[in-house]
Design brief:
The chain has a domain at about 60-90 and about 100-160: 2-Layer Sandwich (Alpha-Beta Plaits), CATH 3.30.70.3270. It has five helices and five strands. It has helices at about 20-35, 70-75, 120-125, 150-155, 175-180, and strands spanning about 60, 80-90, 100-110, 130-135, 145-150. The protein has a three-stranded antiparallel beta sheet. A two-stranded antiparallel sheet has the order 1-4. The longest helix is centred in the N-terminal third of the chain and has 17 residues, at about 20-35. It is elongated, with a radius of gyration of 30 Å. The mean pLDDT is about 85.
Amino acid sequence: MEQRPAVNADEPARDGAPGFGLGLVKGLATTARALLRPAHTAEYPDVKPALPPRSRGVIALVEENCTVCMLCARECPDWCIYIDSHKETLPATTEGGRDRQRNVLDRFAIDFSLCMYCGICIEVCPFDALFWTPEFEYAEHDILSLMHEKERLGEWVATIPAPPAHDPNGEPSKEESKAGGR
């Protein structure tokens, strides 16, 4: 019976490939290094994470600013915004003037089970009725509960962070430059 030579893990095999033992030793060394490092476990429910400023959480609605222009619902790629309204006639404010009509918001709902948090609705709103809030704890046990109506969206208005301060060394805004040019 022919005897085969013993395989040494540190020497390459006859065909030039490294031995099977070298990879095993390197893998165990990586595991041992990871065991000796301290863990970076985030104890989330007990310790709240430090979120970066202006982080995206949930969308808040400032109902007074909404003119029911429907831009947010039309531009939403997921079609997760539902808006219902009616027209209300306002009497003329002057003698001989015409009655005016305005849209009244009846329903504004966002289905967060469909929303992909792209922020297009916030960007296209011309009247600043939609804002990002840093609130992210709104998980539900039932997927149907992720349909948030205007009352629930209005509750998050208090958590909207203040806008960042203007950089004194930066360029002035369009409004400031127009006011200064008068």
